[in-house]
Each structure stands twice: as C-alpha cells, then as structure tokens.
Amino acid sequence: MEPVTTQYSIKVVKYFILAALVWAIAGMTIGVILAAQLYWPSLNFDSQYFQFGRLRPLHTSGVIYGFVVNILMGTSLYIAQRTGRCEIFNKSLSWMVFWGWQLVLLLALISLPAGYTTSKEYAELEWPIDLLIVLVWVLYAVLFFGTIAKRKVGHIFVANWFFAAFIIVIAMIFIVNNLAIPVSAMKSYSVFAGAQDAIVQWWWGHNAVGFLLTAGVIGMNYYFIPKAAERPIYSYRLSVIHFWGLVGFYTWAGTHHLIYSSVPVWVQNIGIVMSLILWLPSWAGAFNSAMTLLQNKEKLKSDYILLFFFSAILYYCLATFEGPLLAIRWFNMVAHNTEWVIGHVHSGALGWVAMSGIAVFYYFIPRLWNKTELWSQRLIKWHFWLAHAGVAIYAIALWVAGIGEGYMWLAQNDNGELVYSFIEAMDFKAPWLFLRFFGGALFVLGLLLMAVNLYKTVRMPAVFVAKEA
C-alpha cells in the first residue's frame, strides 16, 4: 500500500504539460504556414523574417524541443515519482529545469527568424543557446536520476529505462554534434568538416528521432497505455527486449541517410544493416502495446483515447517499416531527397508522436486537474477523424509526389540527357503539395478542438475526485 506521507510534485508537471500543449499547437501551425508557402510562394511576403528558410527550423524546433521535450520532461518526472512511490529529488531544481527550458525555447523563437543558425538539421541553434541547453539538460538528468535513486521500491519500471536512455543518448550525441568554434556572439563553425561532419550530423539527426521521438515516447506510452486500458502490459519481458533492441541497434542506423554519398561504403552498409535489424524490436514493441490495448476490447471499441493510442501504434509500425525500406539502396535511389521522405517523417511525427501526445493530453490533463471525464465526447470524436484524415491526406500526397519526383529525376534519354526539367518535376508535384497543406490544416484544426475541449474540462467544477493517472 502506498505510504500516505508521499508528497508528489504535481504542479511542475502541470506546467510542463501545458507548455507542451501550447508548443504543439504553435509548432504545427507554423508547419501549416510553411506548407502554404510551398504552394503559394507569395506568402513569404518578401520578408527576410517570414520566409520559408527562417521559419522551417522554428517549426522543427518548436515541435521537437517545445512539444515533445516538454511532454517528456513532464511525464518522466511524474512517472518516476509514481512508479518509485517517492517525492521528486528536488522541487526547486524541477522549477529551474522548467523555466530554463522555456528560456531555451524563447531564445529559439527570437534567434531563428532573425537568421542566426548553424544550418545543421535539428541542431540549428547557435552556440550560446547550445550551452544553455546542455546546462538545463544536465540539471534535468540530475533531477530524473535523483528521483529514481530516491524510489521506495526495488524495481525500476520499464518506462523509466526508456526515459533514462533518451536522456543519456541525447546528451551524448547533442554535445558531440554541436562541438563548434565560436567566431562571434551568435556565430560559430563546426569542428567537423566534409564527410566527417555528415557522419556526425546524421548520427545526431537520426538518433534525435530515435531517442526523443521514439524511445522517450515509448517510455511515456508504456506507462499510460496500461493505465488507459486498465490492463497490465501484455508482456513485461517483451518490453525489456524492446528496450535493449532499440538501444543496441538504433544508434548505428543514421548513416542510411548517406547512401550514394562520399562517406565510406562500409559505413553506409552498417547503416543499412542496422536499419533492417531495427525492424524486429520496433514491431515487437508495437505488438506488445497493441496487445495491451486489445486485452480490453470492449473499451477499445468506444474509447477515443484508446483509439488514439492504437492509431499511434499502427503509425509506429508504418514508420518503422518505411525506415528500413528507405535504407535499401534501390529504393533509396528513387525516394531519398524527394517528398517521400517528408511524408515518411510526418507519418511518424504526426501519426506516431503527435497521436501519442494527443492521447496523453486527453487522458492525463483531466486527472491532473481532478476531473472525472472530458467536457465533450463529441469533440474528441471530431478530433479523432480530423487527425486521421489529416495524416492520411498528408502522407499519401507526399508518397505519390515523392515517387513521381524520383522517377522524373532519374529518367534519361538514350544519349543520357534528362527527360524532365526541374520545373516539370515541380509542376508535377504542385497539386500534391496543396493536399499536403490541406492535410496539415485538418490536423491543426483537430488540435484546436482538443484545446477547447481540455480548457472546458479543467474549468468544470470538481464534483468527484478522479482516479490517479
């Protein structure tokens, strides 16, 4: 029985979750603006601050560092306390982490549209902000691992293993990839160059996906899916196998982004082989989560929170199928650097990460505010279908555009001359880029409905005390 003296720190968790919700809407709204700019270039307004190149890193940083990191920080600190039946390591430190991270995001919001960028994918922020990120991340690590050390139970729940991996690996690869020589207050140059820089960059870039958008979200889901389904994890042993499979193979897969490049062929081959191996632990973990939900089939039929979780699992399967597929040389030759890759990224980012986050928002926020139910079941139903229509339209449009674009780039006459010009390839994919914008707009409309629903929910009078999350 849980000791009555345990005082969980819930307030800072609320702040993290609300920040995540705000950044999810803001970051994805910027994404819709970018999609509109690709179809209607005049929407750049001839402004150096509002053009695609300046806003695009703000979109990726807002979603990854704003939405995802905030929700992972909040849920990890909550789960570490609950599963360890202990108080947080240090309350003051938890607020330092929260406000420190919001300062990072504020500086990104100011510096990126102003043009201060390293130009590295998912690592665009300049060196002073990088130093602040490292400082806050170290404080977060101390807070999380300190809370784990304080636990009053011997066992460390599997979700915390995934959170630990996400904290350690992100720290390691972020620091190495961002090693730079400052030349002014807001300008630096990487210590790496050429092929070496590319290898280090995609070691970071792919594992930012692997450990922020995958391992961290898996850890979150391994706690909330059993809670929402009111059933235990289908196979705890399989969850541990899933953990070691991801940790063992994911960090090697990044060089599949460098096939047909000047990096050594054996380095490319490692990326290909490890990508193919990753298929096994990824689908094993997806099977485990799906079977956890299917243990409560009656609730799954009508509970849209469970359906969001189930959809996230299916999109996780799709994304982890596409990754190995894109690593195979013949398919990489056609699809890499085309719109297909954008569709792949967003089927994972919207289908897997965002739908997992949406399910957690719907399940967790009412319980944090001691509410027994959502304000409107009709709105969550509308959100469910808007989100699914949005992801499907977005991804399918870009898959079609990408394959067509890839074949047009490769088509040659008998004399080796290209059959299609660059403009003809752009004309071909234009209508599909409009569908991309339309799908993204539907997805963001669903997020706005969620925000209204959750706001109304927390404003409802607390007649009954909800079950703990």
UniProtKB/TrEMBL annotation:
* Pfam families for this protein: COX1
Q: Mainly resides where?
A: membrane
Question: Under which EC number(s) is this enzyme classified?
Answer: 7.1.1.9
Membrane topology term reads: Multi-pass membrane protein
Q: Which reaction does it catalyse?
A: 4 Fe(II)-[cytochrome c] + O2 + 8 H(+)(in) = 4 Fe(III)-[cytochrome c] + 2 H2O + 4 H(+)(out)
Superkingdom, taxonomy of origin: Bacteria
InterPro entries, sorted = Cyt_c_oxase-like_su1_dom (IPR023616), Cyt_c_oxase-like_su1_sf (IPR036927), Cyt_C_Oxase_1 (IPR000883), Cyt_c_Oxase_su1_BS (IPR023615), Cyt_c_oxidase_cbb3_su1 (IPR004677)
Write out the entry's keywords from A to Z.
Cell membrane, Copper, Electron transport, Heme, Iron, Membrane, Metal-binding, Respiratory chain, Translocase, Transmembrane, Transmembrane helix, Transport
Query: GO MF terms on file?
Result: cytochrome-c oxidase activity; heme binding; metal ion binding
Residues annotated for heme b 1; low-spin binding in this entry: H59, H346
**Any single GO CC term annotated in Swiss-Prot or TrEMBL for this entry:** plasma membrane
Membrane-traversing stretches: 12-40, 60-80, 92-115, 127-149, 161-183, 203-224, 236-253, 265-284, 304-321, 341-365, 385-410, 430-452
Question: Which residues are involved in binding Cu cation?
Answer: H206, H256, H257
The Cytochrome oxidase subunit I profile domain extends over 1-469
Any GO BP annotation = electron transport coupled proton transport
For binding heme b 2; high-spin, which residues are annotated in this chain's numbering? H344
Record note on cofactor: Binds 2 heme groups per subunit, denoted as high- and low-spin.
Q: Which cofactor does it need?
A: heme b; heme; Cu(2+)
The biological pathway it contributes to is: Energy metabolism; oxidative phosphorylation
Where in or outside the cell is it found? Cell membrane
Q: What family does the Swiss-Prot or TrEMBL record give for this protein?
A: Belongs to the heme-copper respiratory oxidase family.
Protein name listed in UniProt: cytochrome-c oxidase
Q: Which classification does the entry list for the species?
A: Bacteria, Pseudomonadati, Pseudomonadota, Gammaproteobacteria, Vibrionales
Q: Which gene encodes it?
A: ccoN
